[in-house]
Design goal:
The protein has a 3-stranded antiparallel β-sheet with strand order 1-3-2. The longest helix is centred in the first third of the chain and has 29 residues. It is mainly alpha-helical and about 170 residues long. Among the domains are: about 30 residues; about 60 residues, Arc Repressor Mutant, subunit A. Helix 3 crosses helix 4. It is built from 8 helices and 3 strands; from the N terminus they run H-H-E-H-H-E-E-H-H-H-H.
Length: about 170
């Protein structure tokens, strides 16, 4: 890869990160109400993966096992997550999102979609379609990297989420 292309790619990702940190993350934090960003991320992981053990969740969220225990305790207490114990090995614990947790995270995303919809309302259909295509293209290209290993399972969820949103319009 030419250095200029790599520099441009890195600059684009830094710009996307800036947009995320200055706009989307504060919005998500405000909308999530009684959950912090990591707790909300855990619910999204569990929604995408159905059931996960604590170690896998800790790795996905880039937190320690101790932190994941604390986060899961809060979500269990709120009724958003339930623990599943392995009868053969009681130390093996998996977490699963509850219907209440699924409703909570879906409502949170619906609010984000509504807010972004207002932000994008002035864009033409062509601009919106170009934005969607660009997003899909970025995802396709990232799937050729190690991105797939970390986020690849989420593609099916993303398709389902888009269908849920567009079918409810």
């Amino acid at each position: 890869m030419k250095k200029d292309n790599l520099d441009l790619t890195v600059s684009t990702f830094l710009f996307m990160q800036e947009i995320s940190q200055s706009y989307l993350i504060p919005m998500l934090s405000t909308l999530s109400g009684n959950l912090n960003r990591t707790q909300l991320k855990m619910l999204r992981e569990l929604r995408a993966n159905k059931r996960m053990n604590l170690t896998s969740l800790a790795q996905q969220l880039s937190v320690t096992n101790q932190a994941i225990t604390s986060i899961s305790n809060t979500l269990v207490r709120k009724g958003y997550v339930k623990r599943i114990f392995d009868d053969a090995n009681r130390r093996q614990i998996e977490l699963e999102i509850t219907p209440e947790g699924l409703t909570y995270v879906n409502q949170n995303e619906d609010e984000v979609v509504e807010i972004l919809g207002r932000e994008f309302a002035h864009l033409s259909e062509e601009d919106l379609e170009a934005l969607r295509r660009a997003s899909d293209e970025i995802y396709t290209i990232l799937n050729k990297t190690t991105f797939r290993e970390r986020y690849g399972k989420k593609k099916e969820y993303e398709i389902a989420r888009r269908e849920r949103y567009f079918n409810n319009k």
